[in-house]
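Section 5.1 Outputs to date
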Amino acid sequence: MDWSWIALSLIALAYVVRALLNISKNKHKRLPPGPRGIPILGNLHMLGELPHQDLLRLAKKYGPIMYMRFALVPTIVVSSPQAAEQFLKTNDLVFAGRPPHEGSRIVSYDRKGISFTDYGPYWRNMRKLCTLGLLSNLRISSFQPLRREELDLLIKSLKEAALARTAVDLSAKISSLSADMSCRMIFGKKYMDKDIDERGFKAVIQEGMQLAGAPNIGDYIPFVAPLDLQGLARRMKAISKVFDAFFEKIIDDHIHEPKEEGQPKDLIDVMLGYMGSKENEFQIERSNIKALVLDMLAGSMDTSATAIEWALAELLKNPRIMKKVQEELEKVVGMERKVEESDLESLEYLDMVVKETLRLHPVAPLLIPHESLEDCTVNGFHIPQKSRVMVNTYAIGRDPNVWTDAEKFLPERFIGSSIDLRGRDFQLIPFGSGRRGCPGMQLGLTVVRLVLAQLVHCFDWELPNGMMPSELDMTEEFGLTVPRAKHILAVPTYRLPN
């Protein structure tokens, strides 16, 4: 007799009974409106290749607070600024939880980072250490010289392409730049593609992000998780081994190779300083360091590159706006030098371009899901405990009640507007808001604005082979982040004196 199948069947029966009891318990309470589901799967079959777009279409019919059932998991989809404020500000503490997530359990050392871990003392402690090690204003400022060095290397390579009048793969160039900047801030030095895996550094990170964002049936029907019906767990375990071997090597290097005098501490140095220390409420071990490093690497590398790509794509598609950005740079910076970080605060139109990019193309359109820690009432609707909450920033950025001509790229809409993107104004929350908002927002904005300004100031860009701006493919590719499906190819012409 196969006892494993009997055990699995009993677990399945227990989950189904519990789900039915929960449905029965909430039956007479006023749940938000939503589409009717089908047995077992609920509404899972309604999600296609681009779930954020599918959820926007459904929200237009059922409203900004929508109830769905993804298999056994009650799910609330939030699609307007007013609704987002209720979940992320008014009831922030209630919705500060994170739902179970198979990908983070496998890849992120049983959820020991800060992105997917449960809300509580451990999360607060790790977030504090992360801020001290990488994300404080002082730390961000200390890394300014290395950002300049890496950007200068990119400009030099693009100047060579400009002399040869050859098209460059801007997407690949930006990804490499972002990876190099992130590695130097987190690890203290750059690593070659072959140092992590034969597929290359960026490819491994991207695969990890795609796997983390892929809808996993095991997250919604836990008793089938051991069967790995989609093969996601197998792939995640393979990626996890690659990451783990790489991080072990880096930690060993830091332990055995002391820092040169005057060299700034990186995140690994800071975290190693806490290992074995009794200053912290929790014991810091290698697994904690590796989980936090993975969070920071994915958060700083993939998100910044994705935002810069989308911004450049919109500028290439809208030559009038590109010209206006360049005119501002000529006025503020002049044509005799490159952009410095100190110039960024004076570049108001560039800031509008970044805001408009993140409105139309939020890097993580569904953020990281929240979970309700207890029963709650929002706008008169009952939100059951353990509900998964998905905030659709893609839908919020296209809300016709907030944005005129919402599908158009119009940075000028922010002229005279006080709308900010740091989480205070819920019309624009690409970094989330509240307790679980993105801790790396300031670093991310600095990198995006600096790289975008430098590329547009130093070069004129044209699409290759006579392609018209209107022909540029703007298709998305879904994952934990949503990058462009196709790389940007463009021909640079250098604008500054040599």
